[in-house]
Amino acid sequence: MHGPLGFGLKQSVGSQALSEFLAGMNLEQHVGCSPSVLNGLTRSMREGICAYEVLQKDACIHCEA
């Protein structure tokens, strides 16, 4: 993941600080920059990553069988 959101997630920057950074770049007219939107995106990404992990584990089990 690249860009400000990737930086924020990788560096454990809080959603409030990341929101202020994105707003400072005048991006609020183009993307959702509020802390609640960023928290929701983070939660959604974590759920997707965990679901992908389960699918990959299942695929590996089926390959070994």
Descriptive overview:
- The protein is mainly α and 65 residues long.
- 74% of the residues lie in helices and 0% in strands.
- The protein is built from three helices and no strands.
Order of helices and strands: HHH
Number of helices: 3
Using only C-alpha atoms, the radius of gyration works out to 16 Å
Strand content: under 5%
Count of discrete domains: 1
Shape: elongated
Question: Count of DSSP E strands?
Answer: 0
Largest sheet: none
Mean pLDDT: 81
Low-pLDDT regions: none
Percent helix, as a range, is over 70%
Q: How far is the N terminus from the C terminus?
A: 34 Å
Classify the secondary structure makeup into a structural class: mainly alpha
Give a quick set of tags describing it.
65 residues, mainly alpha
Question: Summarize this, please?
Answer:
The chain is built from 3 helices and no strands.
SSE layout:
Layout: H1 3-10, H2 15-24, H3 35-64
Helix pairs in contact: 2-3
